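Fold this sequence, please.
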Amino acid sequence: MPELDRRLSIAPMLEWTTRDYRTLARLLSRHTLLYTEMVTTGALIHGDRARHLDFGEHEHPVALQLGGSDPREMADCARMAEDWGYDEVNINVGCPSDRVQSGRFGACLMQEPGTVAACVAAMKAAVAIPVTVKHRIGVDHQDPERALPAFMQPVAEAGCDHFIVHARKAWLAGLSPRENRDVPPLDYPLVHAQAGRFREPGVTLNGGIETLEQAEHALDFVDGVMIGRAAYQRPWLLAAADARLFGDAGARPPSRHAAVRAYADYAERRLAEGARMGALARPLLGLFQAVPGARAWRRHLSEHAHRPGAGPEVILRALENVPESALGDNRR
């Protein structure tokens, strides 16, 4: 199985990294590793698996993120991920929400490295695809300089194929999930140190990276960089990723207009499958950020995509508000 190129990945984000967003991202970058929204083991074992797991072949490379803490259930769901064709399965040890804590997974598992190690070992025994862990540098009153390597060591020994470290603590009480993404200070040097210590399996840095310039700098210290909200809110930043970060000198993404037209074709197919135009339009809102006509583009999508009977023509008419000649990405 070829090793995944982890130089750039997009963070799993609930209600954001849907298959629709992943399709837009893949139109802009062939190499960036994409992650699903987190899916709980309970949803897969007891719910509609196809609804949670289906994705398009064009999305590869794509990883499934799981939320859970029972080794047997995690192994069962890892098998589902492999059977469905995912390139990786990832364990969520970073989400601090009350709902996630009540299910005994997410960031609270930073306090249970033995449980995470047991999940990794069970999953590794069940599948051939990589098993990775996304986590924080610590929680609550833990000392990250001690807690982080103390968490990573047994998980690495259990066979974890790669660590993705959000370089902030998580506060399980006192901060909302949104505040936990911004308020705790970033500690990049601590993550850099773990990248030197855990050369195998390697470390990806997450948290606070908003530009490809920042990503390029970070890659001097770590094996990969994961970008979150910036890649959703300003998806065009991915257009230069293949050439700048992956060294694909021949990479030539479509212009924004060409990408929109290709996405409209995709939206037509998804609508035939029962998708809703409002959800399909949402990933497009930030595509023209800071260019002439961007406000009118967003307004048209927001006002028309949710109307009964709305179809791909909403996207194409919105595009008329953005003059192609005013952009610097006029590739046909």
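Residues 88 and 130 are 5 Å apart (CA to CA). Strands lie at 8-10, 33-40, 62-67, 88-93, 131-135, 162-166, 203-206, 224-227.
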